[in-house]
Amino acid sequence: MKIREFVDRDLPSLVALFNETYKGSYEFIPFDETTLRSWIRERNPRIFIAEEDNKVKGFVVYRSGHWGDEIRWLCVSDHPNRKLVEDALVREVEKLVKRGEISTTVDAEDSKIEEWIKRGYKPEGGLYHMVAQLDGLKPIPKVPEGIKLRSLKPNEEKELVEAINNGFGWERVTQDTIRRWKKNNPPFDEEWVHVAELDGRIISVVVSKPDTEYNRFFKGRRGYLGPAATLPEHRNKNLAKALTRRAMNFLYEKKMNSVALYTSERNVPSVTLLRKLGFKVKHHWKFLHKDLK
To answer: What pLDDT, on the 0 to 100 scale, is given for residue 65?
Structure first.
């Protein structure tokens, strides 16, 4: 067996292995060659292939970004040497780590968590997928006097980018983001972006979109909410709660019957707020981290 970098001819094998590995998992949507190639081009990950007798036995996908170094997928065919192949692929990725730490994400109930622990990875925090039913318009919580809740205007992309990035404290979106959202999530437009304005300045943002892939594959009518971004000096003013409810009402008027989002299990204030708005945890993933220093 040898480990090498991905080349385009590997694509059919990657599609088959990915779909076989993750079939039956939570809200699984299979890849085809077109969608996987598009995903690779958009995110530009490093992919390593385990090959034996000119056959692909497994692969690992590695990404390095703002959140750190991450093993995105580890897919190996089910055979007696599966764990050996997985370990070899993980070691290959760990050679690339420059920040001293790497992480991966695994279903909270997955037995493979024990295998990751044996490789030196430790569970630290996790991610919730939360869903709420939309069954009518609900009152929007009050916000301080002088703050206006409204949708984004078509010429405000620069102000939106500034507000979101300042709210998160790092560059989460760029000037091209709305164009990509429009392309990937029709009929999304500026009306789907909910903002709080004070003295002509955007101080808080919640983005709603159609949950496009879920709706297409499962024939659903579900909306999606991005995390609220509020400028630090305007937090604790009920803005995130008010904008989230406004976005939920908006999605209901767009004929959506449910709405989903993701939030950290450690973000207790966010989880508490979302439960009050009717959200329930539908799935739970665990983060596993390894210190290579």
So the answer is: 80
